Amino acid sequence: MRLHRLEVTAFGPYAGREVVDFDVLGADGLFLLHGDTGAGKTTLLDAVAFALFNSVPGARGETKRLRCDLADPDQVTEVALELTVQGQRLRIVRNPEYLRPKRRGDGFTKQQAKVSLTWVGAAPSGYAADGVTRNDEVARTVERLLGMNHKQFFQVVLLPQGEFARFLRADTAEREDLLERLFSTERFGDIERWFVNLRTERFQELQKQRQATQNWVTRFAQVAKAEAPEDEQIDWVAGICLDAVSQVEAAKLAEYQVRGVREKAEAVLDERKAMAERVRRVKSAHAKLAELAAGAGQRELWRAEVAAAKRAAGVADAAIQLRKRVDQLTQSRRLEQVQERALATLRQAATGTAVELRATAGALREEAGTLAGLVAEAEQQRQDRVRVSELADAARYAGKRVEELTGKIEELPARLERLRGKANDALAAEAKLDGLRLTAEELAKALRDAEELPGAQKSLAAAESALREAVDAHQHAREHRQNLRERRLDGMAAELAADLVPGQACAVCGSAEHPAPAMPMLALVEEKQEKAAEDAEKRAEAARERAQLAKLDAEKLVAALEERLRGRTREDLAAEVAAARAELTSVSELAAQRARWERETRQAEAESGQLADQLNQAEQDLVKAETGQNSLAEQIAERDRRLEVARGEHADVGARRAHLLAVVSALDALAEARTAVATAERECEEQREAVDAALRQAEFATLEEAQAAAKPAQVVADLEARLTAAQTEEAHVRSVLAEPELAGVEPDAVVDLESAMDAARRARAEAEIAVSTLQAAELRSRELSDLAGKMSEAMTELAPVEEEFAELKALTEVVNGRGQNARKMSLRSYVLAARLEEVALAATFRLSTMSQGRYSFVHSDAAGSRGTRGGLGLDVLDDYSGTVRPAKTLSGGESFLASLALALGLADVVAAETGGALLDTLFVDEGFGTLDAETLDIVMNVLDELRAGGRVVGLVSHVEELRHRIPTRLRVRKARTGSTLEIQTA
C-alpha cells in the first residue's frame, strides 16, 4: 500500500481545506509530522484511517465527533484519499454523519454519511468499472485489497498513540487472526474443517453400523429369550443354536408317536359314522313312503281340477273379449251425448246422420274462411288505435320538453358566472397555502423549542453542579496523591534502609557500614498505594473533562434555544400556533374545492351546447308526432266501416269467425261419435255369437258354470308341479331302498358314535399340540441360525470400519491441535507459527541493532496455560541476563523499540511473501519521547535504511531532535488555536 494524496475539509481541528501530498513527502522514504501537543498531528492519521475504514483508532473513534466545530455552516466535512494497493490506484471520498444548522429557520438537520470509491485508470477484474458508493461494499473492497480490517491495520501499518505495542502484547487469538489475513492461510483452516467434517461423517456411518450390529444382537436375544452377554458373544450364539437343534429333534419324535394314535382313533370314528349314516337313510326312506301313501286321495282331486280348468280356459277368453266390446259401446254412446250437448250450447241442431252432419260442417267452414282476411284487418285496426294514442303522448311530451329546455337555456348564463367566481376564489386560496404552512411549521418548531427550554435549563444546572462536584473530586484526588508522594519521599530513606545487609555496600553511598539506618514511620506509604492514588487522580481528571464537555453541550443547547425564541413565551407561541393552524385549515378547505368548481364550470359550459342540440331535436319530434297522428286517424275511420258490416250480431269479426269454427268442430266430433256407436254395436253382436260357440265346444251348460271351473294359469301350474314332485319322490325313495349297501339294514338299529368321537377328539388335540411344538422349535432354530449368520457378517464388516475411524480420529485431533499433539498446535497455527518465526527473525535483526545487541525476539510454540492452544508465543531474550522475558515486562522505551522492530519485521516478511506489493508504508504515532538520545540516533539510522528498499515511513512526534534531523517543512494551520503543524521530509 502507498499513499499519494490526502485532502481534509472541516475535519477535526481543521476548519478549511488542507492537502497533504504524500508523493512529495515520501519521495525520500521518510517524513515527520511535528508540532506541539494538541497541534493536530494525530488528526491526519485519523483522516487516513477514516477514509479507508470509516473509523479512527482508540477512544477518539467512540465519540464520533469528526466535524470541525469552527467550520463554516455551508462547508461540507469531507476526507479524500488517493492510494495504490496491489498495483491498483483508487480514490476514496468519505463524508461523516454530522448535524449542521438549517438553511431555512432555526435548528439543526442531519447530514447523512456518504462514501465513494473510484478507480484511477482501469478497474481491476471482478469490480464495477464506475466504482462503489455503498458503505458496506466499500468496506469489503478495502479489506479485500489490504487483506486486513481496521483493527489489524492499526497494529501493523498505522501504529496509533497508546496502541503502539498492541501486536507485541497480543494474545494467540489476535495474532492468529491478523497473521491469517496477512499470509492468506485460510486454506489450512479449510483443511482442519475438512478433517473435522470427514470425522463427523465417518463417525455417523460408524454409529449406524454399530447400531445395526447391536440390532442383530438384540433380535437374536429376543428370539432366544435370553440376555446377551457383554463379551464372548460368538460362543454364546453357538450354544444357543446347538440347544435349538436338540429341541427340534425331541419335538419330531414326540410328534411321530402321537400321530399314530390319532390315525387309529380317526379310522374307528369314520367306520361308525358310515354305519350311522346307512341307518339314517333307511329310516328316512320308510318314513317318506308312509307320507306319500297318506296323500294319494288329495292328488286325485288335484288331477280332476286341472282337467276342468283346461276345458274352461277357451270360454273365459271369449267372455273377456265380449266384456271389452260392451264397455267400448257404452263409452261411444256417452261421447255421442257429450257432442250433442256441445252443439246445443252453440245453438246448432244435432239431427241427421253422420254424413248429413259432415255436409253442414263443410258449408260453415267455407263461410269462416271468407272472414279470415277481415280478422287480420281488425288486428291492424287495434294496433293503429294504440299507435294513435302513442303519437298523441309523444306530441305532448315533445311540447313539454321544448318548454323545459327553453327555461334551462335562459338560466345557464347566471349559473356559469357563479361557478367561475367560486373557482377563482379557490385558486387564490391555493396560492396562499405554502406561505401559511411554512408559517405554521415555523411557529410549531418555535413552540417545541419553548417547551424544550425549561428541560435544557435544568440539564445545564445539573451539568454545572456535576462539574463542580467533579472539580472538587479531582482536586481532592490530586491533593491525596501529592500527600502520598510527599509521605513516600519522606519515608524513602527508611525504605532503602530496609534493603541494607550488614557487610554489603549501600546502594546510595557505597559504604559497607550502616551505623544509623533510618527507621520507618508509623504509616509508611508503599509504591502500590501511590500508583492507586495516581490512577484515582486520572479517573477523576477524566470525569472532570467529561463533566466540562457535558456543561459546554448544555450551554450550547440553551443558547441556541434562547436565540431561536427571541424572547417569545410558550403561551404567546401556543396562541400564534392555534391561530395559524385555524387559518390554514380554513384556507385548505377552500382550496380543496378548486377542482370541484372548475369541473362544474366545464360541465356547465359543455351543457350549454348540449341543451341547444336537445331543443332542436325536441321541436323536430313534436312536428313528426302531430303529422303521423292526423294521417293514421283517417285510415282508422275508413276501416271501421268495413268491419261493422262483417261482424253481424257478434262483437267483432274475429268473434264471429271463432263461433263458426267451433260449430264446425262440434259437428265433426258428433259425426265421428255416431260412426263409432254403430261400429261398437256390430262388434258386440259378433262376440256374443263367439261365446255361445265356445260353451258348446267345452261342454258347459252356462257361462257361469265355465267361469266357476276356470282357474288362473299359475294355480294350474302349481297343482301339476305337486303331482309330478310326488311321483318323482316316490321313485327316488324306492331306488334308495334298492341300493346294495343298505340291504339287511334295519331302520331301528343303534350305533355308539359318541365314544368314538371323544376318542378321536382327544387324539387330534394331542397331535395338534405336538405339531405346534415341532413347528415352533423348527421356526426358532431357523430364525436363530439366520440371525447368527447376519450378526456374524455385521461384526465382520464393523471391525475394519472401527479401525479406519480410530486412525482418522487420531489424525483429525493432531491436525486440530489435540490428542497426541503435544504442543496443542493446529495445522493452521503450525503454519502461522512458521510465519511468525520468520517475522521474529526479521524483527530480531532490527531490534538487536536498535537495542545495541541487548534484546532479540524468541518465538515460542509451547502450549498455553491450562492446555490452551499454543504456537504463536513471542518473548524477548535479554542478552544482559541471559533470560527469556515476556514482552509485557519491557519498559516504555523498550516496548517502543520492540514494537517498531516487530512492525518492520512483519512488513519485511509480508512484502517478501506477496512480492513487495502490500506493506510498503508505515506510520508511527509518538513513542520517540521515551528514547534517550543515543537510542534515538540508532532508531533513526534504522529508519533511514528503509528508504533504500522503497518503503515510506511517516513519523508523528513532538521530539525536537527529530525536527532537526528532518528539516524540510510543510505547515498546516489548525483552526481552533491557530497553532501550526509542520510536516517535514528527510
TrEMBL record:
Assembly with partners or alone: Heterodimer of SbcC and SbcD.
Stretches assigned to the Rad50/SbcC-type AAA domain: 5-186
InterPro entries: P-loop_NTPase, Rad50/SbcC_AAA
Protein name (record): Nuclease SbcCD subunit C
Gene3D superfamilies from the UniProt entry: P-loop containing nucleotide triphosphate hydrolases
GO biological process, one term: double-strand break repair
Keyword entries, A-Z: Coiled coil, Exonuclease, Hydrolase, Nuclease
Entry's family note: Belongs to the SMC family. SbcC subfamily.
Coiled-coil ranges (or none): 402-487, 525-635, 663-704, 750-782
Taxonomic classification: Bacteria, Bacillati, Actinomycetota, Actinomycetes, Pseudonocardiales
PANTHER family: ABC TRANSPORTER ABCH.3
GO molecular function list: ATP hydrolysis activity; exonuclease activity
